[in-house]
Write a structure and sequence with these properties.
239 residues, three-stranded antiparallel beta sheet, 42% helix, globular
């Protein structure tokens, strides 16, 4: 796993040397946790993979032929940011977003008028939406944006479980053990869709119990209904 920190330079400094590698503001530096090899990145991303500079041996030449996804095929994190640094970035971005332009305002400022949209393909629309997201997240690279989204989702889910009576520590433990939080609307829509494919007697019987739970709002073992932030949520505890 590659753990990074954002390069923050003192005033009047425009770069720093990290074992001979020139690290500039906006770049990230760190280590490969298992081997201790030094790494750095600008966050350059192609098709979901981030380019990483790595020094395989002390005082040796840095190589930039390493491309990594955020997670491996088993869901294990490959790229992360040091915990305190991610919290610092999170606070900074949240503060920025409080006064940031909404999409419509940003689009108008950047010349994306209603007439401009008329002949755009879906791919071109996606590119514009990605450009807005980049602005909205203070022009941080893609891997940082994804880590922030995951952090915020975790923070929200912790608060939902705390609303259900868990302590913060208990909530974090439940979520790390596989507990899932759904909006009640999403869970219901997914259930209504998936039950059409169930033919096994046990599956059909389970569907009946879930349907009854959704109609009565009386949770089965391992489930809990919660109201939070103006929405209804369903917690599926992994016990």
């Amino acid at each position: 796993m590659y753990e990074f920190k954002e390069m923050i330079l003192p005033e009047h400094f425009n770069h720093a040397s990290y074992a001979g590698f020139c690290v500039k503001p906006g770049m990230f530096y760190g280590v490969e946790k298992e081997s201790g090899k030094l790494v750095a990145t600008t966050g350059w991303n192609i098709n979901g993979s981030t380019n990483i500079y790595i020094q395989h041996e002390p005082k040796s030449k840095w190589n930039n032929d390493l491309w990594e996804d955020l997670y491996d095929d088993y869901g294990k994190p490959l790229i992360t940011i040091e915990k305190n640094d991610l919290q610092r970035i999170s606070s900074k971005v949240k503060e920025f977003q409080r006064t940031a332009m909404d999409f419509e305002t940003w689009a108008n400022v950047n010349g994306y008028t209603d007439e401009y949209y008329e002949d755009l393909t879906r791919e071109e629309m996606d590119q514009i939406e990605s450009a807005y997201e980049w602005y909205y997240f203070m022009e941080y690279p893609e891997f940082v944006i994804q880590l922030l989204k995951e952090l915020w989702a975790m923070e929200k889910n912790v608060e939902i479980l705390m609303e259900d009576g868990c302590t913060r520590k208990e909530a974090e433990k439940h979520l790390n053990n596989g507990t899932v939080v759904y909006t009640l609307e999403d869970f219901t829509e997914n259930f209504e869709f998936m039950k059409n494919f169930h033919e096994d007697a046990d599956e059909i019987e389970a569907d009946k119990k879930i349907k009854k739970m959704l109609e009565t709002k009386i949770p089965m073992d391992g489930y809990s209904f919660v109201k939070y932030d103006g929405k209804e949520w369903l917690i599926s505890y992994c016990l």
